Amino acid sequence: MNKTRPKHLALHLIKLPLSGYVSILHRLSGAMLFIALPLLLLLLDQSLRSIETYTNLNDNLANPLLKLLLLGLLWAFLHHFCAGLRYLVIDLHLLPSLSAARASSKWVLAVSLSLTVLLGVKLW
Amino acid sequence: MVNRVVTGAHYGLRDWLAQRVTAAVMAVYVLALAVYLLMQPGFGYDTWVYLFSGNVMRTFSMLFLLSLFYHAWIGVRDIVMDYVKPAGIRLLIHVLVILALILYVIWSVQILWGL
């Protein structure tokens, strides 16, 4: 009965269900959006300040690196939004079974990814 | 009569609820804004500035941003509590996040009311 302590979990051996990954990505996307807040506020500021700053901003947004960054943030927002809605639905006890909960995490990943592609194509 | 004293700081349930209420506010705002923008035939500076010229839109945008900052505080605090163990560093990050969010509030007022 000599168990070795402390126990260290071998993270690379743990197989999470899909909802586990949705949860981790919910945290990750939330952290991304928080870090990007000053940039997003700056974009809002520049887009409203004057026609010059607006045009300037439009020119700057042609930069492929900035576009890629915003596309990443668009995904972060959409994933956070969809996964958040799923949590609200779960809190309201509207997903009674394990299979329904698992299926919904598939939907979260699929909807947020396809909306990212769709909006990404539409915006650029 | 049982006078039971429950221990704890009692902010758990309040923040749990606040996180969800602010999320609902943001979801409604974002969906309304998205639908409005998708219905605009042509989009340009004029449409954008006109949208934000009314006091109702400015007020609801401020409500959205305040919800966002409160929501972000709860989320970031949870992440920091989970992963940052040394108390000093954790406190420092919490203070920096709070100060940043307060600055964002001031900045938001300046942006929306063109100060």
CATH superfamily of chain A: Fumarate reductase/succinate dehydrogenase, transmembrane subunit
CATH homologous superfamily label of chain B = Fumarate reductase/succinate dehydrogenase, transmembrane subunit
| Radius of gyration from the alpha-carbon trace of chain B, in angstroms | 19 Å
Largest sheet of chain A: none
Named at the architecture level, the CATH assignment of chain B is: Up-down Bundle
Explain the overall architecture.
The complex is a heterodimer of chains A (124) and B (115). Chain A is an all-alpha fold and 124 residues long. Chain A has one domain: Fumarate reductase/succinate dehydrogenase, transmembrane subunit (3 helical TM bundles of succinate and fumarate reductases). In chain A, 77% of the residues lie in helices and 0% in strands. Chain A starts with 17 loop residues before the first helix and ends with a helix. In chain A, α1 (18-49) packs across α3 (64-91). The longest helix of chain A has 32 residues, at 18-49. Chain B has one domain (12-113): Fumarate reductase/succinate dehydrogenase, transmembrane subunit (3 helical TM bundles of succinate and fumarate reductases, Up-down Bundle), CATH 1.20.1300.10. In chain B, α1 (12-39) packs across α3 (55-83). The longest helix of chain B has 29 residues, at 55-83. The mean pLDDT of chain B is 92.
